[in-house]
Each structure stands twice: as structure tokens, then as C-alpha cells.
Specification:
Layout lengths: L11 E3 L2 E2 L2 E2 L2 E2 H20 L9 H20 L8 H17 L12 H23 L17 H13 L1 H30 L4 H38 L2
Antiparallel strand pairs: 1-4, 2-3
Helix pairs in contact: 1-2, 1-3, 2-3, 3-7, 4-6, 4-7, 6-7
Length: 240
């Protein structure tokens, strides 16, 4: 039986090196491309025609739009509307990427820490720049909790600074760890089911239930990643 972590191994599809840096087109790159094409096709085709009484596909697209619009409205406020395109794109990219990774013989690129950290670092840098541009040096008041006694400032400020700079790490590890752990567990149970043969009926039932749970986790992790992005953006805008 193959190792459960073998499924996460990157394979180079189009080798390419520039200045000693490996820029090969890998399996992760391929499935990210498939995800982008799938999301683009879904949104383009579902909204083509824009019928007054929406069909199933148009309803799904409109529900996705309303879901993210409400998330931004509740967590960022009216000033967050200008960032809707980025947050909507982020949510759909992670959601579809997670779900596509559930297809047999596909590849879950969100199980790669470099992918999730790249997204988290981009968000971290972006919200920090937004905060500095909007508030200037007053942005650093974010690290001083409201109503903090002066005597406690030397203790609380370092804690706030550390917690702020840990954000991209926690954001990326949460998504990466959940996707990797879930797929590893499914691989282990799937391997046992094959080895048991006829006696593997019970494990098959468990595997089906586990698949349903993993789909739920895939959706939940896309939501968590996006809502945390909204909260970080809210901090940058309102300094709360």
C-alpha cells in the first residue's frame, strides 16, 4: 500500500529553471489552473443572459455573490465593499480548489503550505498597507488595546505585536493542516478497505461518511479563511 502522504508529492509536468530557480509547471500549478478555469466558466456561463427568474446555475452564482457581500457587510462594513472582488475571488478559489481536490486522482493544492502561506502573506501585507495608507502612524495604535493602563503597556504591546505578525502563519497552517490531515485519513481508511476485500463493507460505509465530512471541512475552511481575511481588513480600516 502506498504511503498516505505520497498523494501530496509534487510532480514536475513542464520543467523550467531560470537563474537557478525552479519555476516548473507542477501538478499543483495544473490544478490551480483547472480551479481558475472552472470558477470563471461557472460564473460566466451561469450569469449569461441574466434571466429575471434565475435557473439553478444562476441561483448558485447569485447565492455565492450574496453570501460574500453579506460577509463583508457584517464583518467590515460599508467601507469594505470596494474589496469585494478580491474577497469573492479568494473565497471561490479556495472553495473550488478544496472541492476539486475531493475528486479521485486529482490534487489538493491547498494541502501545500507554500500555497496557503503565499495567500496568507499576500493578505497580511495587503491589509497592513491599507492600514498604513489610511491612518499613517496612527495605525500603530492597533497594538495598544483601548483602555490599557499605562503600567501594563510594556507587557501588552509586545503580545499584540507578536499576535499580529503570527496572523499569516496561523491563517496558512489552519487551511493546510486541515486539508492535509483529512486527505491523509481518507487515504489510510481507503487502503484498509482495499486490503480487507469482501470484509471491507463496514470500512466502506465509514469511508463514505468520512468523505461527506471532508466535503464539509473543505467548505468550512474556505469560509474560515475568508471571514478571517474580512476581520483583518476590518482591523486595518477601523483599528478595532
Amino acid at each position: 500500500m502506498a504511503s498516505p502522504v505520497e498523494q501530496f508529492k509534487l510532480k514536475s509536468l513542464v520543467p523550467f529553471e531560470l537563474g537557478g530557480v525552479d519555476l516548473s509547471y507542477t501538478t499543483s500549478s495544473l490544478w490551480m489552473t483547472i480551479t481558475v478555469v472552472s470558477v470563471t466558466a461557472f460564473l460566466t456561463l451561469s450569469m449569461r443572459g441574466g434571466r429575471l427568474v434565475p435557473g439553478r446555475w444562476q441561483s448558485m452564482a447569485e447565492m455565492s455573490y450574496e453570501f460574500i457581500a453579506n460577509m463583508i457587510r457584517e464583518n467590515v462594513g460599508a467601507e469594505g465593499r470596494k474589496y469585494f472582488p478580491f474577497i469573492f475571488t479568494l473565497f471561490m478559489f479556495i472553495l473550488v480548489g478544496n472541492l476539486v481536490g475531493m475528486i479521485p486522482f486529482s490534487y489538493t493544492f491547498t494541502s501545500q503550505i507554500i500555497v496557503t502561506f503565499a495567500m496568507a502573506a499576500t493578505i497580511f501585507i495587503g491589509v497592513t498597507v491599507i492600514g498604513l495608507v489610511r491612518h499613517g502612524l496612527h495605525f500603530f495604535s492597533l497594538f495598544v488595546p483601548s483602555g490599557t493602563p499605562l503600567i501594563l503597556a510594556p507587557l501588552l504591546i509586545p503580545i499584540e505585536v507578536i499576535s499580529y505578525f503570527v496572523r499569516p502563519v496561523s491563517l496558512s497552517v489552519r487551511l493546510f493542516a486541515n486539508m492535509m490531515a483529512g486527505h491523509t485519513m481518507m487515504k489510510v481508511f481507503g487502503g484498509f478497505t482495499v486490503l480487507l476485500g469482501v470484509l471491507g463493507v463496514a470500512p466502506i460505509v465509514l469511508l463514505v461518511a468520512l468523505t461527506g465530512f471532508e466535503i464539509m471541512v473543505a467548505v468550512l475552511q474556505a469560509y474560515v479563511f475568508t471571514v478571517l481575511t474580512c476581520l483583518y481588513l476590518n482591523d486595518a480600516i477601523h483599528l478595532h
